[in-house]
Amino acid sequence: MPAISAPANILVTGASGFLAASCCQALLRRGFNVYGTVRSHAKGEYLKKLFENEPNGTFAYIIVEDMRVLDACDEAVKTMDAVLHLASPVTGIFGPDVEPEDAFRPAINGTLGILESAKKNGSTVKRIVITSSMSAVAGLKDTNWNQAAVDEVNKIGKAAQGFVKYSASKVLAERAAWDFMEKYGGGVGFDIVTVCPAWIAGPNIQEEGTGSELTAGAGSCSDVRDIADVHAELLMKPGAGGERFIASGTPFAWKDVYEALDVPFEASTEESGPLAAADQTKLVRIMEKPLSDIFRPLPETMRDAVKSARERGWDVKLN
Prior knowledge:
Blueprint: E1 9-13, H1 18-29, E2 33-38, H2 41-50, E3 58-63, E4 82-85, H3 100-121, E5 127-131, H4 147-156, H5 162-184, E6 191-197, E7 199-201, E8 211-214, E9 218-223, H6 224-236, E10 244-247, E11 250-253, H7 254-260, H8 281-287, H9 291-294, H10 298-311, E12 315-318
Helix pairs in contact: 1-6, 3-5, 4-5, 7-10
């Protein structure tokens, strides 16, 4: 598909979310006209005010109360040139009392719904970028899927841990998108791109939230501003269509977070070192720059995350 270039109309689903709000900002700064779906006028008005001084693009919001309804975006996709689909449940549906189907269906329906809407009414849509997760990836390679999470949930049902249910939901929702394209790809006027980010941190520009908790562990950290830029750039790169990308910043151990924040580190148990880095050869190639120019250093992300939270009066805890 040809590149999407400004000033084009871009629909961003779940626009009031942590990553989605930063994606809106990244698109506006590139000169796009951004239309964000939100669940209420209050959320939309907050974003409208937040972006009112962005000089290069325009922002408007569209009320979509329930993305789980398959035809929820039938009207929203009309006149759009591309879509960033970020709306997906994260909290509240992966608890111990939730049946797997109840956890999976919202993510799957949200993804299939936006694709069906674009198929029916999005005659001008040329690309849909879908946010998945590193939790849907196995072996740190974009060709591998975390089938183990799906198998575990299928085996033990609602007794599976919340993160395992979340990971399985990401696998199933992303696979649903690729299956849709395999079935209808020749008959629609758009391609898709999926982005699998690692754990995302950094400054928060969304309205929601009452606290910030940094949880101990090890993994890979990506700055929300960098992941937003990756989404915007993959929208614009002709060669990105039909591809799956890992987007992962700095591999880290928990002590690295403490060091970044100049906080003494006292581990109750011996901690493993950082995880191995993911294979992002494809992202480097399509972005035409090294990872060090795509992702900022961990200390900058952590310091800005804490500063942003405290400026909002949120309680920041290191666990």
